[in-house]
Amino acid sequence: LSAGAKMGCFTFIKVMMILFNLAIFLCGGTLLGVGIWVKVDGQSFVDIFGTLSSSILQIVNVSYVLIVIGSILLVIGFLGCYGAQKESKCLLMMFFSVVLIIFIAEVAVAVVALVYTSLAESLLSAVVTPVLKEKYGVDDTFTHIWNTTMTKVHCCGLNNYTDFNDSVWYNTHDGTYPEQCSTLAHLHLGGCPVQGCFDQILEEIRTNAGVAGGVAAGIAALEIAAMAVSMYLYCRLDEK
């Protein structure tokens, strides 16, 4: 290619890099804002997004996850956008390094999730069950989220009703279980045990595994493309 064509190609890719990372920056800001909103008013989040959102809130603290992801996207968007605009090799290399670290971490998490699924489930149960015992019936938002989940998903506790044994609720309500568990137990007198919410949530996740896998693959492809473009700009700056 002629020098003019190379320069035109460089300018085009630079502009695309700026626009792409500007979009990432704005998405990061949006996620950060939503994370703060969920942290301040989690009940409204459940009311708007329904049962699935309440199920997700049982597994992870959505507010912190969104705040962390939003902050990371803000940093990545800033480094990529400003680095391309100023043609800064330092910022472009920082952008490449951050995206590479995130990509490696995502691959590692995916491998661990696939290979050590049972271990991950055990660890999750060990973390969530004590919180359920301590906060159910004490924290109004937390209690509302669990009640919504148990009612709409038709489940009781994380693993089963015994998660409420020796809980704050159990001890302050004369050894009784939440109304949702009692109702389900009555409906399952035919012999079918009442399932815990964890199994139901996993079933929802498995049902949508194809969509989740497609989204993950798309994100990975964008990360690889972003790294390739940033390295192209980095190398071309030496030739200018």
UniProtKB/TrEMBL annotation:
Segments crossing the lipid bilayer: 12-38, 58-79, 91-116, 211-235
Keywords: Glycoprotein, Lysosome, Membrane, Transmembrane, Transmembrane helix
InterPro entries: Tetraspanin/Peripherin (IPR018499), Tetraspanin_animals (IPR000301), Tetraspanin_CS (IPR018503), Tetraspanin_EC2_sf (IPR008952)
Topology term for the membrane: Multi-pass membrane protein
Cellular component annotations (GO), alphabetically ordered: lysosomal membrane; plasma membrane
Locations listed in the record: Lysosome membrane; Membrane
Keyword check for Membrane: yes
Superkingdom of the organism of origin: Eukaryota
Subunit structure: Interacts with SLC19A2. Interacts with NTRK1/TRKA.
Job description of the protein: Structural component of specialized membrane microdomains known as tetraspanin-enriched microdomains (TERMs), which act as platforms for receptor clustering and signaling. Participates thereby in diverse biological functions such as cell signal transduction, adhesion, migration and protein trafficking. Regulates neuronal differentiation in response to NGF by facilitating NGF-mediated activation of NTRK1/TRKA receptor tyrosine kinase and subsequent downstream signaling pathways. Plays a role in the inhibition of TNFalpha-induced apoptosis.
Family: Belongs to the tetraspanin (TM4SF) family.
Family annotation (PANTHER family): TETRASPANIN, TETRASPANIN-1
Entry protein name: Tetraspanin
Phylogenetic classification of the source organism: Eukaryota, Metazoa, Chordata, Craniata, Vertebrata
